[in-house]
Design goal:
With 715 residues, this protein is an alpha+beta fold. The chain is 32% helix and 30% strand. Helix 12 crosses helix 14.
Length: 715
């Protein structure tokens, strides 16, 4: 029997390392294992990664050579910063005259607090002329001799004003320092955005974790190679993509906050979410992130209490999870849920106890930790003391589906809730609902804010729950908010699934005042080349370009798979199923929904409505071959053409749809359907660069290939 090629995703958590094997063709889950994270092994977390891989291959019957893709996510960088376990950074400031004033102020980074009472170990040295190799050597020797609280410098950072435009000075310093054998980085290598202070701070934090992450990378790489895996090793980034190991060696900071990113990557790739919120619920908390128009919401992250140039998933955490304990007031009402969990209190969930253990149960309240209020509910019964949790309530009212990780015997859950219901003077179902209401209310506040912040379309948005505690939050939130909701398949391992399915990703940002189309195309090309260099198949790379005229920022985000995915799924949605999906999203009778255009991979549907009986709108939905709505627009113009005819057609459409006003020129939001892709060009407001980017998408295509243009006019 032929074994399938597999994609392996490994998620290294604080306690456990989870690994999954996914069929590289069908993307179906083939196996999953869990092993303790090996923090204290001589090989560190690398040992647990290899152990998980070995067990996974044994479980699936696959050989190391069957691994087509291998990636891992890790909390190591995040934990290093939280715990203050970092290297001493030697910062070399460069500049003479007025520039020296600004660079000397960078020595204040030694005051950055990593953990209570522990500051970033940093030593500062100054070089006036970067081309003075002797002066650079003296500075390096000064740093190595130990001019900081943490001892001698273990890693070097070079920083100079305006190095984004003129990087030669930072490069010269690193060249002169190279013989000393220390890991090194230049501030301009970490980000190409202006802002000396923020750019250098980002580079310094990156450098602080560099030696530790380099050691781990080398161990993992050697262990995987020794195990016989020939696929290149990738590492999860904090923006939902993966990067090559060599890129991680250069910018380990990109792995900070990558834990939540793995889950939302799983929601994107496995659940095919195009609009909505992903809620990853564990025992203690819920991480909430947003998918808008098929893309994760990313922003500059806050690191060590300061904003940085680290592009990370916009994730907001609420202290409510499956194990969150119920709280009651003196008046006998449920006043809240969490933030303490059964795990923190050292108590088992009441709903997982047997009926015999719950015999003679009585309600009491406790302080889970010193300093906590004594209002957390516990059940004292024949079998001992148990915590009443969100999971208990969800099981009691039937919110947890069969086969779910958090499922228990519903009769046990009802028996667990019954003593509290008696105290509240109500029935079990009402008591359980009050618990869920109290917990979900906190989550709903954050979800509502994120829907507003990102202007999600509530008519098409969905709530997708992941994590072992998903059933305790997402189903009830969907019911109370009126937004469609579901629990992700294999929700308890959605994070390693996300690692296994993630795309290679790179983001390039440049400050280019009045950027010409040549400069915009150059940034696009740089991002595309970067993902190809990291192993992405060139034919499948997609690049989204955004030009922000207010900040003069040109941003290109490139994504691609390490192999072209030719999925041979057993089921594709037929015409009727795709029509129904479009009609449901449009909230229209299927008879009123029409096919406007299509390619081999996507179908565009539309209907007509009226607003205030004056302006006719054409709502549009783009549906893929699986019946998933990949894009929606409240009012769009759709036109079909071919690659050969596209330049003339697009020039006409863009010309007709561009608006002019006090706010400047605003080209339409343009998306092109090409083959299996939706090329999103909506981030460009200037007509000429927009058309140039469209031409770059068409240049490698056959002349007779169909092209569908979807345009939305901007007011």
């Amino acid at each position: 029997m032929n074994t399938p090629r597999i994609r392996v995703g490994i998620d290294v958590g604080g306690t456990f390392t989870d690994a999954v094997a996914v069929d590289a063709t069908s993307l179906e889950l083939l196996g999953q294992v869990k092993v303790p994270t090996s923090h204290h092994h001589e090989d560190g977390v690398a040992h647990g990664i290899v152990e998980a891989l070995d067990r996974l291959l044994e479980q699936t019957g696959c050989a190391p050579t069957d691994v087509a893709f291998l990636a891992h996510g890790t909390t190591q960088a995040t934990n290093a910063l939280l715990e203050g376990d970092v290297a001493t950074v030697g910062l070399i400031g460069i500049g003479a005259g007025p520039s020296a004033v600004f660079t000397r102020r960078l020595a204040s980074f030694g005051k950055l607090e990593l953990a209570p009472g522990k500051r970033l170990p940093l030593a500062y040295a100054h070089v006036a002329d970067p081309d003075d190799a002797a002066a650079v050597r003296r500075a390096v020797e000064q740093l190595k001799d130990g001019q900081s609280e943490g001892g001698g410098a273990q890693v070097l950072v070079a920083s100079q004003p305006f190095s984004v435009d003129r990087p030669e000075g930072e490069r010269a310093v690193l060249d002169a320092a190279r013989p000393y054998g220390l890991p090194m980085t230049a501030a301009h290598e970490i980000t190409s955005l202006y802002g000396l202070h923020k750019r250098t701070r980002t580079a310094v934090v990156n450098a602080a974790i560099l030696p530790r992450m380099l050691a781990t990378a080398d161990l993992v790489d050697a262990s995987i190679t020794k195990a016989g895996v020939t696929a290149p090793l990738m590492v999860m980034r904090c923006d939902g993509g993966v990067m090559a190991l060599d890129e991680m060696r250069r910018r380990p900071l990109l792995t900070v906050l990558s834990g939540p990113a793995a889950g939302v990557a799983g929601a994107l790739m496995q659940e095919r979410v195009s609009e909505g919120a992903f809620l990853e619920t564990g025992g203690t908390s819920t991480d909430i992130s947003v998918v808008r128009r098929g893309k994760v919401a990313v922003r500059h992250a806050t690191v060590l209490g300061k904003t940085s140039y680290l592009n990370a998933l916009d994730v907001r955490t609420v202290g409510v999870g499956g194990g969150s304990m119920v709280r009651i007031g003196d008046d006998g009402r449920v006043t809240g849920v969490g933030p303490r969990s059964a795990h923190i209190a050292g108590l088992p969930y009441a709903c997982f106890a047997s009926p015999g253990q719950l015999r003679d149960a009585k309600v009491d309240t406790v302080r889970p930790m010193d300093g906590d209020p004594a209002d957390y509910v516990v059940i004292d019964a024949a079998g001992g003391r148990f915590a009443l949790t969100m999971t208990c309530a969800a099981n009691a009212v039937g919110r947890v589906p069969e086969g779910d990780f958090a499922r228990c015997d519903p009769s046990s859950a009802r028996a667990a809730i019954a003593p509290l219901a008696a105290v509240l003077g109500t029935d079990v179902a009402t008591a359980a609902t009050r618990i869920l209401d109290a917990g979900v209310a906190q989550v709903k506040t954050v979800v509502d804010a994120m829907i507003r912040d990102y202007r999600l379309d509530k008519d098409t948005a969905v709530l997708v729950g992941g994590g072992g505690g998903a059933a305790s939050v997402t189903p009830h939130l969907a019911r109370t908010s009126g937004i469609e909701g579901r629990i992700a398949r294999h929700n308890e391992v959605i994070s390693p699934i996300g690692v296994a399915l993630a795309l290679v990703r790179e983001q390039v940002e440049r400050i280019v005042p009045g950027a010409s189309q040549e400069q915009i195309l150059a940034v696009r090309g740089e991002a595309e080349r970067a993902v190809v260099a990291q192993g992405a198949a060139a034919e499948g790379v997609e690049v989204e370009v955004t030009v922000d005229p207010q900040t003069s920022t040109v941003r290109a985000v490139a994504t691609g798979a390490t192999e072209l995915r030719t999925q041979d799924r057993s089921h594709r949605a037929d015409d009727t199923e795709r029509l129904r999906a479009a009609a449901a999203s449009l909230k229209a009778d299927p008879a009123a929904v029409h096919v406007l255009a299509g390619t081999t991979a996507h179908t565009v549907y539309g209907t007509r409505t009226h607003r205030r009986l004056r302006k006719a709108l054409r709502p549009v939905r783009i549906v893929d071959m699986d019946g998933v709505v990949r894009h929606h627009a409240a009012d769009a113009h759709v036109e079909s053409t071919t690659v050969a005819g596209a330049p003339e057609v697009l020039a006409r459409l863009v010309g007709e749809s561009t608006s002019y006003g006090d706010g400047g020129v605003r080209a339409p939001a343009l998306r092109l359907l090409l083959g299996s892709r939706i090329a999103d060009l909506s981030g460009v407001l200037d007509p000429q660069p927009l058309l140039a980017l469209a031409q770059s998408e068409l240049r490698t295509r056959a002349a007779d290939e169909p092209v569908v243009a979807v345009l939305e006019v901007r007011s």
